[in-house]
Design goal:
The structure is a homodimer. Chain A has 20 helices and three strands. Chain A is mainly α. In chain A, strands 1-3-2 form a three-stranded mixed sheet. Chain A is globular and about 70 Å long. In chain A, 48% of the residues are buried. The C terminus of chain A is likely disordered.
């Protein structure tokens, strides 16, 4: 076969593999949305079988032969197929190291652990989950052995989520932000704690849902190629370019939790809906990394959804959505309430100032468990100690402690750091956006999200995996990964909000001055 | 490997294949319930890929080798694994005849045809669907060539749905029931047409849904291992013994359509929830045939759901479900309304007396298209002529004519006859049930469906494919397939209802005499 025919063959085979991956995603989606209670065991087997099949297809002798044939031909490949072959070879070189029975065992163990986690979380009984975590930690160690690594074994896992990133670099950046954020949180904690009595109402779930659906549509999410459902833990999943789904959860005692999760998952989904059509059913129509993925969700949730101009735009509609409940509440009130800083227990409900601290402690615990310094049986104690250290609050039970996240049930050590990296990338990109989009905040204030989405489509989304995350950040911002933009973003937003240091207090500013968006100054 | 090890290996491989089949079912389920509008094309590719993969797994050289090794060993197999090997060999001998690329092409064409059918049906534009039907008819012809057949080529397809049944036998039985039912319908049409003004109300969809959910639960459907959703065309699908799902549709101008479809699919689902746990993830945990499957849905829908004792039980709750709308309606009124006989256009809404006539015309058209005597382009004309012949009514448009059913979009020639066979099996089984379950109708009248479900579990469900349909019918009733029990059932029910012949008119009977259930006489 000549080169062109081989590329065509590769596309056919990748199409099949992507179909199987999409199917695995669907099995997971259904498991978390509509699956009947007793179907979990059978579902676990299905996911394990399909995961193993995907692996078998990708590492088959035919595929191996085909892929190897490109290694010496990379230079001869036309520009439009070189990235495809390179990315596929990169994945192949990782996946081929894992034996099929290991992949199947891992998938099966994850499904079992997920079912156990659901129960353990519900009952706040760590002992239900512990044996599964032990099994998964062992499997992750085996995985790092199969994959190989330089330096710390954690690198082998981190690379799977954040190509080119090292534990050392993450550790260094986390020190910088950990330090700065701890200081900021401390300063905030010394101010008079604000109170928001008006938040203590019952917010009708249907009205929350409807409001979220409108916002999701407004920001550009395409409902012809997606949908939103309910699940205990919100997530975004993709079965193809025309089928990118999000989920949320709605609590009637929490006005913002559903909306913010919708904006967050919406940000993820806009990314996935923005890949090139030509890359469909190949590995190019995927996120460059989880960190860059998270930068998109964080930007829509925090930079936009927690900005004053956003709420100036939505205030009227917001009031109408909850008749009689918000009549005396104005945009600044919402802005203040939605940016409350509070040392709290639950990561997914944490504010922007404390969020990364939650991530840092998970990163540290994962490294210790992987290295064997921390045994899974000692996790609750270690968790509670770190919460005490970083946030200074006691953990009442494991449901509010080490059982709160689903992630460890899916054996995803190395995943958590990408949440904090996402914050950093988002701040770097956002700095640039404020420079490059004229009258940025006027657009937001008038509910026009198109300029932002177009910018993101152009600089981030459309590339898929044609660029790596460092390349995307470099091309878009002219810099490498940096912690300073995020630290600046936080200080510029929260110091005025809490009347800290020389920044003017928010209370002295009028909405038209664009409160809380003082990064506009860098425009 | 010794025999025991080979059986174990077979079970492992079948488990994988069943997982892939379940996944294909899930892709279909989602396509018809929750899938976003634009995702159809991608979904088609996924279904095609997974169908081809299933085929590849089942006909792999490893599987072929394994299965062939059993052929001379069938006598040596222990009793608990012989049926498993036999059924698997039976399927293998059919599937192995189909090349993988044919399977993939068929699955892909079906998905495309389904999408086209949805549009064609919506707009009532046959031309949208015609090229797809042409393609599918060609593919079905090729399929019969691959499979081989004795007598008419239609036999090759019929065998796929109704093992052991022949076109000749179906044709003969259809003549008997066609003749008897035409006569009965003619006699009914000569009586004074009853009117049911009270039906012409708006029936709140939520209330219909709630009522259906209660009935579904009452008859024994297990919601821990299943769920009901909405879809345009109701269906039952199974992803495993603990995940058997049904769908329905709700029309606010039709009081009974949703409930009857729920009972119908519920009957299918009770069958699937009744397979032996030990047969899980093998081909034994499947229906013996589609005809016997349909006998279960028909029994719950018609013999039970359209009986007077059923409505005597539910009347109060029914009234409460639609406050103020049914106060002057009693059980006999419902019984009469729900057993209206009317020559009408839509098969799925047809009554028990005309239903088989709809099936017979489809059976005839399929045979003609497969033999080439009827070209797909001439289908609408041929359809309309047959409706005129069998039902004496004009067809206003193709949506109410040859586009009404989804089935031909999934290339399922040979499927329709099983609907009528289901009616016949149901009547044969029901005759026996009335003989063997003491005070049968008192149980129904008091809402106790357990004796019926237990009987069906014992005589039909638990066997899965351990017995063939002829064996099930023979063991349960002592007879072969017969048309007379269904003809008797219809006459005994509808002649009194319409005051025909020597049977007393229903109007002269009181509910306590068990009107319309004169088959009780055979008790």
């Amino acid at each position: 076969m000549n080169l062109e025919e081989r590329v065509l063959q590769l596309r056919t085979r990748l199409g099949e593999i992507c179909d199987v991956s999409a199917t695995v995603s669907m099995l997971h989606w259904d498991q978390q949305t509509y699956m009947p209670p007793k179907a979990g065991e059978g579902r676990g087997k299905q996911i394990a079988t399909l995961s193993a099949l995907r692996h078998r297809l990708f590492t088959s002798s035919e595929m191996t032969h085909l892929l190897e044939s490109f290694r010496d031909d990379l230079e001869n490949l036309p520009d439009d197929s070189r990235p495809l072959v390179e990315v596929t070879l990169y994945d192949f070189d990782r996946d081929a190291k894992l034996p099929e029975d290991f992949v199947q065992e891992l998938a099966q163990s994850e499904s079992n652990a997920f079912e156990a986690w659901v129960q353990a979380h519900e009952r706040s009984e760590y002992s239900i989950f512990q044996p599964h975590l032990e099994k998964l930690v062992d499997l992750q160690k085996r995985k790092t052995d199969y994959l190989g690594f330089e330096g710390e074994s954690y690198n082998a896992l981190l690379e799977g989520y954040e190509r080119g990133m090292t534990t050392e670099r993450v550790s260094a950046v986390f020190q910088e932000i950990g330090h700065a954020q701890s200081e900021l949180v401390q300063a905030i904690s010394e101010t008079e704690p604000p109170s928001y009595h008006w938040l203590a109402q019952v917010w009708k779930q249907q009205n929350q849902w409807d409001f979220g659906m409108k916002v999701l549509s407004d920001i550009g999410y395409n409902f012809s190629s997606g949908r939103q459902d309910l699940s205990a833990h919100p997530f975004t999943t993709t079965f193809g370019p025309q089928d990118v789904r999000v989920t949320t959860r709605v609590h009637e005692d929490d006005l913002f939790s559903a909306l913010m999760s919708t904006l967050h998952e919406g940000g993820h989904a806009l990314y996935e809906q923005g890949f090139e059509e030509a890359d469909e059913r190949t590995f190019l129509a995927e996120a460059a990394s989880l960190g860059i993925h998270e930068s998109q969700s964080r930007m829509w949730e925090n930079m936009i959804g927690r900005s004053l101009p956003f709420w100036e735009h939505y205030l009227l509609y917001f009031r109408q959505s909850f008749p009689g409940q918000l009549d005396s509440v104005d945009a600044i009130d919402v802005y203040k309430a939605i940016n409350r800083v509070e040392r709290s227990l639950i990561r997914v409900e944490a504010d922007e100032c404390t969020y990364n601290l939650h991530v840092i402690l998970r990163f540290e615990l994962e490294r210790e468990m992987l290295s064997g310094n921390l045994k899974p049986r000692d996790l609750p104690e270690a968790w509670n100690a770190k919460i005490e250290k970083y946030l200074g609050i006691p953990v009442p039970d494991d449901a509010n402690g080490c059982l709160q996240d689903v992630h460890w049930s899916s054996a995803s050590f190395g995943y958590f750091p990408t949440y904090a990296l996402g914050n950093l990338y988002a701040a770097q990109l956002f700095e640039k956006i404020l420079e490059e989009i004229p009258d940025f905040w006027s657009h937001i204030e008038s509910g026009d999200f198109k300029p932002l989405l177009s910018w993101l489509r152009d600089r981030v989304h459309r590339h898929g995996r044609r660029l790596t995350t460092p390349e995307i950040i470099q091309q878009a911002t002219g810099s490498e990964l940096e912690s300073q933009p995020y630290i600046n973003y936080l200080k510029n937003k929260y110091e005025p909000l809490y009347g800290i240091s020389e920044n003017p207090s928010i209370a002295t500013l009028s909405p038209s001055e664009g409160v809380g968006i003082s990064t506009r100054g860098s425009n």
